[in-house]
Amino acid sequence: MTAEAELPRPASEAASPGSGDRAADGRTAAGTGAEEKALDRADDTAGGAHAAPAADGTPDSAMSLVAAFGGVRGMIDMTVPGLVFVVVFTITRTTATSAYAAVAVAAVLAGIRLMRRETLMHALGGFLGVAIAAFVAIKSGKAENFYLLGVLLSGGYAVAYTVSILVRWPLIGVVLGPILGENFTWRKNPARAAAYTKATWVWVALFVLRIVVQVPLYLADKVTWLGAAKVALGVPPWLVAIYLTWLIMSKAPPPVKVTYDDDRPSATGSESTSR
């Protein structure tokens, strides 16, 4: 993906074509040798993959991580249906009406995603979550159960992220490794693996915070406060976690990006030229 600019040749090379060609061959051979050393570092990758050093160690900004974790539309899907539910319930005090309103809003958001030709997972994922939450609330007749699925998911995520750290496969590395082009080569780099572990702890803290705040409100049947907490603990701490993740990874060693044999036309061309 990176483009290499050709260095200008000195005047002495321009005056002597033969010496210029020899210098160019020397530069090509040296470049090829450096590439081969970098590629040899990924001998543990599968499927004919090779590793080459990345230009930098992190996404270019925290906003690029926001996109990786769902983007602006993900934030909207995360916030709006729950906000609509709590507002309608506060006004009507009716579980079914509030649930149907939330589902209707989620359906509109899903329809917008479909019209934009986004993937079905992104388009329908949020809608299905809201639909299940609404179904549980209506069937139980308890408005607070609209938020039960979210509370359970937070608990499940907290456990999963913690276990991933204990088994030395921190989930932030599992998620971001392929996005950054390094796949799982970070596991061979102790400092980078440690950074992913630290970043994963940040997300564990986020999920635990949600549980600590929401569970007492759920048990006390404080629907309005529970809905407000759901909104407050949605996007704001999510953005903080993303920023801290970016900050941690920006101080980590650079990744070793993975390329595949079929995707190395430039390396092949360099090798041919050196011969």
From TrEMBL:
Stored Pfam families: DUF3159
The UniProt record lists the keyword Phosphoprotein: no
Entry keywords, A to Z: Membrane, Transmembrane, Transmembrane helix
Biased composition (Basic and acidic residues): 34-44
Transmembrane residue ranges: 83-112, 119-138, 158-180, 201-219, 225-248
Biased segments, Low complexity type: 45-57
Positions of region (Disordered): 1-57
Protein name according to UniProt: DUF3159 domain-containing protein
